[in-house]
# Entry
Amino acid sequence: MFEAHSINAEHKDLIHDIAYDFYGQRMATCSSDQFVKVWDEDEHDNWYLTASWKAHSGSVWKVTWAHPEFGQVLATCSFDRTAAVWEEIVGERSGPGERGMHHWVRRTNLVDSRTSVTDVKFAPKTLGLLLATCSADGVIRIYEAPDVMNLSQWTLQHEISCKLPCSCVTWNPSLSRLHPPMLAVGSDDTNVSSGGKVFVYEYSENSRRWTKTETLSNVVEPVHDIAFAPNLGRSFHTLAIATKDVRIITLKPMQDSAQSGLSRFEITTAAQFDDHYCTVWRVCWNIMGTILASSGDDGCVRLWKDNYVNNWKCVAVLKGDGTSAQSADIPQIATPPSHSTGAQAPLSTTRNITIATVTAEKPTATILSTSKWQAPVIKGRFSKSVWLGNPSEPSPPPPPIIERPKPKK
# Structure
């Protein structure tokens, strides 16, 4: 079960990206109308507009939040060949009970690209205040703010040439000291003969350079989005790719590669889904790295989860108009190429998941939330459901308790 809330974003053109902040209580949207809007959630789960401004002189492709320890900071990139960093300044309240005006200031404009800047991402906070951009000229640029208290000064630290137009970039969020800084970039080049469209780069402390470690040669279609899963102690990395379908790739470091100073990986396709039956545009992980959300031209958000034998399965299909997909639309199991089909254990539900979707027909945003009731736990002859929401908020009537029939002797 899930519920949908539609927000009239009041953008005058197509919304290209939506980004939540670290706590999931603020949301930023960007559009071809060259505007960026920031939304806040109140105590009643309603979203209200707090800021809106013209950010660029061309379509704004992506927007992303920095970690809150650096303040309320946004980065945007645009067709106008620039990326920008914005910082929020909150004014004083004009009266009791009134919200202060939120004003966003452009701290810097990054103008090194000669073509459209297609993606922008802040690095994990453990690396400092770093910002990676990729552009249609096939170059990844990494900037650093030497003084986090002065966001008007950014230095270009590295330029990485990919030799193919870049469409998306992602940082590996691993916190392990055993894993050096890592980037993955995707290309939307339509020429299949140009080879793999996903490249993995690793930073070496010895040479102080970024080096390409892997090219995913089995991904030859245009890549529209890419996302590393949060690591949380895993010895391997998981990468989600949005192309003509959804692909989940695992990268396991080889033991003998550490001695050479350059990591090599055993690359495995853990799962591949064509359930969208069309182009997939976005992939996104939950904070635990256990559930993947994907969206495509079919107007649906699909949630994927793996079980204890690493078989990935579609656990929910959420339609952008707020209606629930039929059970027949949800495949029973998706078998990865390296696994055989077997008996599947039931998947446990999570707590609350909130997903923002964008509809192309109208400049509106839809907030989808799953139910906060845990799946029934069978104890003896009865099934029991537990409320997983905030204890302070009133819970809806629980699902009916179903008595199991006694087995015949």
